[in-house]
Structures are given as structure tokens and as C-alpha cells.
Amino acid sequence: MMLWQWDNQTEQWQAISLQPGKPFSLSPHALLLPLAGERCGLMVREEVIVNGLPSLPLHMLVDRDEIRVGRETVYFSTESAAEIVLFAGQGKEISCGRCKGKLKEEEASIQCPRCQAWHHQTEALPCWMYDAKCSSCEQPTAGISWQPESLRRRSGGWEYDDQKE
């Protein structure tokens, strides 16, 4: 899960990774509660706007929700970037989603953040990066597939980069 927040210095959206079980404070009045399974709660004490509507004290977020706290706008995304990890084995044989070869304990591997399929990612077997997307779903192998539209802050709101001033 990610939270997209505007960075005024770089004038770009920055992704903040949200970890299940680790609350994230948006402000003194709004707290994100990331849960397992791509779920995230939003607890609010004062007015917070979600997708243009006032939020209830507890709101379950869905992918690409827009959250406005005061003058700040952030976006919630259920997507996560893939990470190379050492395969733990888990006491069972698991095959690579692309080459169908068996994954070995302590071997560099990637579990697709969307469909959970495992892939080799070693120098000899770069199965995850072999194609532009996961072997079992539409998850991109490089980066993520969604981020907020190319908006930039201007006085009094947001505008698309292609709008003339």
C-alpha cells in the first residue's frame, strides 16, 4: 500500500510505503490504519474530505481514494512495488511463475505484490524482470502501474500540467 503526497521542493508526487499494523499520521486529526490484505482504515477527529465528501469518524479506504486534510491532498493506493527477498521456503515446494523451476531456500526471489506468484530474480534466472509484467497478472515488473495524474499545485488548487496559466 502507498500514500502519494505532493513534494513542494521537487514538485512531484512522492510515494510513501504503508506497512500493515503500523499507523501513519496524516495530521493531528487524521490517522491511517494499514491492515493486511490491501485494506486501510482512516480515523478522523475533525473534518477530512474523501473523494469530495466529508468522512465519517472511521472510513475504509479503497484504491485511488483522494484524501483532503485541511489544504493538503494525498492519494491512497493499494499497489505496492515488488521487492527482492531471500526465499524462505516455508516448508513446501514452490515453483517460479515464469520458468516453472523450483525456488530454493535463500535464493533471491520476488513475490508479486498483486497476485502473490513467486519468481526467481537472480543473475542466472532473472525471471521477474524477463517481461514488462508479472507472469500471472498485470503487475508491472519495473515500478508501479498507477500514481496520481500529472497535477501540480497552484495558488488556490490544482491544475493539470498541460493547462495554460
Whole-angstrom Rg: 19 Å
Distance between the termini: 34 Å
Widest beta sheet: strand line-up: 2-1-10-9-6-7
- CATH class category of the largest domain: Mainly Beta
Query: How many beta strands in the DSSP annotation?
Result: 15
CATH topology of the largest domain: Tumour Suppressor Smad4
The largest β sheet comes out as: 6 strands, antiparallel
Q: What's the average pLDDT? A: 87
Q: How does the overall form come out from the CA principal axes?
A: elongated
CATH architecture of the largest domain, by name, is: Sandwich
Low-confidence stretches: 161-165
Q: Give the structural class.
A: mainly beta
Count up the domains.
2
Q: Report strand %.
A: 35-45%
H/E series, N to C?
EEEEEEEEEEEEEEE
Total helices: the number is 0
| Helix fraction by DSSP (H/I, runs of at least 4) | under 10%
Describe the structure.
Mean pLDDT is 87; it is low at 161-165. The protein is built from no helices and 15 strands. It folds into two domains: 2-80 and 144-159, Tumour Suppressor Smad4 (Sandwich), CATH 2.60.200; 81-143, Herpes Virus-1 (2-Layer Sandwich). It is elongated and about 55 Å long. A six-stranded antiparallel beta sheet has the order 2-1-10-9-6-7, with no helix packed on it. The chain is mainly β and 165 residues long. It has strands spanning 2-7, 12-17, 24-27, 30-35, 39-44, 49-50, 53-54, 58-61, 66-69, 72-77, 84-86, 108-111, 118-120, 151-154, 157-160. Helices cover 0% and strands 39% of the residues.
Summarize the structure.
With 165 residues, the protein is mainly β. It has no helices and 15 strands.
